[in-house]
Write a structure and sequence with these properties.
By secondary structure, this protein is α/β, with parallel strands linked by helices. The chain is built from ten helices and eleven strands. Helices cover about 35% and strands about 20% of the residues. The chain is elongated and about 55 Å long.
Length: about 260
């Protein structure tokens, strides 16, 4: 009996995912990945200079490095990539199911960030850094129309990708409903909202809070807006000006702190 088309496509997707690898580059990103026991490491390329700087981290990882000529660095990277003489081929991280990752730790009032069509890896990398600094449980984005785990994202995250869960899920609205069922207050950022983030969380900072941010320009999709409990804004000093999405995430996370 011939398999249905959707079954074949699903199996192909699983095989492609299993075969997928990522090339991380730059001293910070490579160092943190080398020291991450959860990261599957496949191949390490380093120049003599980079090896000298990473020697302890390489020893901890147990991987055998391949020495490379800095003039003909063989890693398959974009020519504009500032690799600093180090590149590491890895498997993407598997953080586990959303419900498990976003469950509050003992004594913690959890925060998460959800991204709606934020595709720039530099923005997502910066958001991961902010999420780590402010103790967010996870950064969550859909598989489609979001920034995948890449070397550029990892380099911007400056090591946060190894420590801050970045979950890419099938459907953003479904993930939002799951978090709401776990007790999360779902706040969507919108410049036209009536209340600021600080006003919306006043008296509710003991609640689990999820901040939902859209791409610069289009903002949140209609379905995403409708799934939020409330739309909020970041107050500006004047009538003009706006923050990019990574800065907005940092400010909003700070505003929800106790």
């Amino acid at each position: 009996m011939k398999k249905p088309k959707w079954v074949i496509e699903k199996e192909q997707g699983r095989r492609a995912s299993a075969a997928a690898t990522v090339w991380l580059f730059g001293l910070h990103a490579v160092r943190d990945a080398l020291r991450n026991p959860a990261r599957t490491k496949l191949r390490l390329l380093v120049t003599k200079n980079a090896y000298d700087k990473l020697a302890e981290d390489i020893a901890v990882s147990g991987i055998e490095p391949e020495m490379a000529d800095p003039r003909k660095f063989p890693a398959p990277l974009d020519p504009q990539s500032v690799h600093q003489g180090a590149a590491l081929e890895v498997k993407p991280l598997d953080w586990g199911p959303l419900e498990q990752v976003c469950m509050a730790a003992d004594g913690q009032v959890p925060r998460v960030v959800l991204l709606d069509r934020v595709t720039d890896p530099h923005n997502v990398g910066a958001i991961l850094r902010s999420a780590e600094v402010f103790g967010a449980r996870a950064v969550i984005a859909p598989h489609r129309h979001s920034a995948p785990e890449t070397g550029a994202l990892a380099k911007t995250a400056s090591g946060a990708l190894e420590r801050q869960p970045y979950l890419r899920i099938k459907n953003l609205a479904d993930a939002m409903e799951t978090l709401k069922s776990m007790g999360y207050l779902m706040l969507g950022l919108d410049g036209e909202a009536e209340q600021s983030v600080a006003q919306a969380v006043e008296g509710r900072r003991d609640r689990a809070i999820a901040l939902v941010l859209g791409a610069e320009g289009p903002g949140l999709r209609q379905k995403t807006r409708e799934t939020c409990d409330q739309l909020v804004k970041i107050d500006a000093a004047g009538e003009f000006g706006s923050l990019n999405v990574s800065n907005a995430a940092a400010v909003a996370l700070y505003a929800t702190r106790e």
